[in-house]
Every structure is written in C-alpha cells, then in structure tokens.
C-alpha cells in the first residue's frame, strides 16, 4: 500500500495519501466500529458513544475521498477492481457499512440510519463480490500465488459475516421483516464460512509452502484471525436469535458447533500471529511506522473481544469471561496507537505540503 512513484501530470499520484486512499481504508471504520461495539458490550458506554460519533465522521470523509478519486481518476479507480492486491480492499466498503449499521442498533439506536446502512452494505457486498471476482477471473495478467495472495483476501469473509451480523441485529428495529432478515443472516453466515474454507486454506498453504519475507507479513495477515472471529460472532448472534425462528431452531446444533469451531480457529491464530510479528519487527528489525493497513490489525482484536462476549452469552461459558475483559483493553490500546499514528501522518504531510 505504501508506494513511492512520484505523481505525473494528468495521472493519479501513486503514493498513498489522505486524498488518494487505498480501497481498504474503510478498515478504519470497521476497526472503530467493532471496538465501539465491544466497549458497549463490556459496559464502557461513554467510550462506545464517543467512538460511534467519530466513526460516522470517518465514514462520511472516506466516502468523500473515494468519490473524489473515482471522478477524478476513473481509469485508475477501475483498474483497482481487477488488481489482485487492491481489488479485495473494496470488500471493506460493504463490511464498514454493515458494522456502522450494527453500531446504530446496539450502541445508539438510530433505526432509519441502521436500515439505510444495512441496505447499502448488502448492495455493496453483492456488487463487489461479482465485480471483483469476475474481474480477477477474466484478467489475463495474473500474479502467481506467492505474490498475489495474502491474508487481506479474507476480508471477503469479513464482509459476508458483517452482512449476517447486521441482518440479525436489524430484527430489533424492523421486526415485521424478521423471517427474511434471519434467513439472509444464516445464508450470509453459511456463505462466509465456505469462503473462509476456500480462501483460508490457500492463505495457509501460501504461508507454509512459499518463502516469506518480512515485507510479506503486513498487518492484513491479522485478518486470518479476524475472519474467524466475525464468523463466531455471526454464529453466536444467530444462536441467540434461534427462539424467534423455526429455521434457526432446526439449525441450532450446527450454529453452535460452527461458532465454537470458528472461535477455536481464531484463538489458534493469535499466538502464531504474535510470533510472526516478533519475527518481523524484532528479529528482522522492520520498523513500526503508521500504515493505513494497521487498521486491518486493530479490527480483529476488537472482533475477538465482541465474539467472545456473544459466544459466552450464547453457550453459557462463564469461565471464559476474563478473556474479553483483557482483549478489550488490548483492542482499545491498539486503536489509540493507530489513531495517533494517523494523526501524526496527516500533520506531517500537511507540514510538508505547506
């Protein structure tokens, strides 16, 4: 995402900047949203409300930047769709919309806004799914697996599960559409689970059978854990909604079993990701500098907190309660450090441009 080619007259600057954001920059909204939701679930109401207000501003600002870029540099914008490294970043648009919709139900209820964001998120998920995967399929110039695949591809799973979670939560503000919403939620959960099997298997294969440089282990590799965590959250929310639906009641053993399996996979990833981070930054001495991709690492930490809370509630696993209490403060710390990095980056760039 960090590119250094200088801008040419009449062409889009290729360096990452606030005015030319990577498609995956909506991970900022995803990360802020889930940390807000996790804070609310753990009783930190004032923190959750503050983050929700900030998240609304982030969301509007990012849309303004993205629309500006699409109108000013349409060819470069369209090229991103068929790019193996940037195209999957568009899934953050759908996921961010659905996470913000869920915030508008759980943190501070604004029913009409929750419905609008949910509808936009579902539309974007369908649009991005078929636009990106079709473009990548017909693209005649393709990288090999070693260069073209990374953990960021699992954001497609995150988007599907974000649709599931927001659809499930929307029942609270649109009860007359309960049956349709819960059917969509379980369908998206199933779709996301299969995508995790397909893409996650390839990602693990790439990690273990191809050479890895420190540069390859960028922050999106934390999505390996985050995709499993949001699958857990979606399954737990569906399990809690089972008494409201005959369909979910009949699927309850699968929902509970799938949720536990996904949580176990998410938990399994955490020590390995910490070890890889140590190898990258301590042993191989890659400096820690702000990169917008770090929001893709904050999101899984907040998601692991939220999914653990809901799994404990759905399966009555009281002995796990200390876990989300610890991870909440890890997620809040990670969010604060990354936000400080964002502010420093913007101020530094403004000083250079003066």
The geometry reads as globular
Average predicted local confidence, pLDDT: 91
Alpha plus pi helix count: 12
Distance between the termini: 24 Å
**If you compute it from the alpha carbons, what radius of gyration comes out, rounded to the nearest whole angstrom?**
19 Å
H/E topology pattern: HHHHHHHHHHHH
Helix content: over 70%
Q: Any overview of this molecule?
A:
The protein has helices at residues 27-41, 45-72, 74-81, 91-106, 111-138, 145-148, 155-170, 178-209, 223-241, 246-283, 295-315, 322-353. It has 354 residues and is mostly helical. Helix 2 packs across helix 3 (74-81), helix 4 (91-106) runs antiparallel to helix 5 and helix 5 runs antiparallel to helix 7 (155-170). The longest helix has 38 residues, at 246-283. The two termini are 24 Å apart. Residues 1-18 have low confidence and may be disordered.
Summarize the structure.
With 354 residues, the protein is mainly α. The chain contains twelve helices and no strands.
């Amino acid at each position: 995402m960090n590119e250094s080619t200088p801008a040419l007259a009449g062409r889009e600057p290729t360096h990452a900047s606030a005015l030319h954001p990577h498609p995956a920059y909506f991970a900022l909204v995803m990360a802020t949203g889930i940390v807000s939701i996790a804070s609310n679930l753990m009783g930190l109401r004032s923190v959750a409300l503050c983050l929700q207000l900030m998240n609304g501003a982030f969301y509007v600002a990012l849309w303004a930047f993205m629309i500006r870029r699409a109108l000013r540099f349409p060819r470069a914008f369209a090229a991103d769709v068929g790019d193996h490294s940037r195209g999957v970043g568009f899934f953050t648009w759908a996921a961010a919309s659905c996470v913000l919709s869920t915030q508008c139900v759980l943190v501070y209820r604004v029913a009409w806004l929750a419905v609008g964001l949910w509808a936009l998120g579902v539309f974007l998920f369908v649009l991005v799914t078929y636009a990106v995967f079709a473009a990548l399929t017909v693209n005649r110039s393709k990288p090999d697996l070693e260069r073209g695949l990374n953990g960021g591809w699992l954001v497609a799973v995150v988007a599907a599960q974000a649709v599931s979670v927001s659809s499930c939560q929307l029942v609270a503000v649109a009860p007359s559409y309960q049956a349709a919403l819960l059917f969509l939620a379980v369908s998206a959960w199933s779709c996301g689970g299969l995508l995790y099997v397909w893409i996650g298997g390839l990602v693990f294969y790439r990690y273990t059978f191809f050479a890895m440089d420190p540069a390859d282990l960028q922050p999106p590799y934390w999505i390996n854990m985050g995709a499993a965590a949001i699958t857990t959250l979606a399954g737990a929310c569906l399990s809690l909604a089972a008494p409201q639906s005959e369909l979910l009641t009949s699927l309850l053993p699968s929902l509970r079993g799938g949720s536990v399996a996904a949580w176990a996979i998410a938990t399994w990833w955490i020590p390995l990701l910490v070890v890889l981070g140590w190898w990258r930054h301590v042993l191989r001495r890659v400096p820690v500098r702000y990169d917008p991709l770090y929001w893709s690492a904050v999101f899984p930490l907040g998601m692991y907190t939220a999914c653990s809370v809901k799994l404990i509630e759905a399966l009555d696993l009281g002995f796990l309660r200390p876990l989300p209490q610890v991870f909440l403060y890890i997620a809040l710390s990670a969010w604060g450090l990354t936000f400080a990095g964002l502010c420093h980056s913007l101020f530094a760039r403004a000083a250079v441009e003066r």
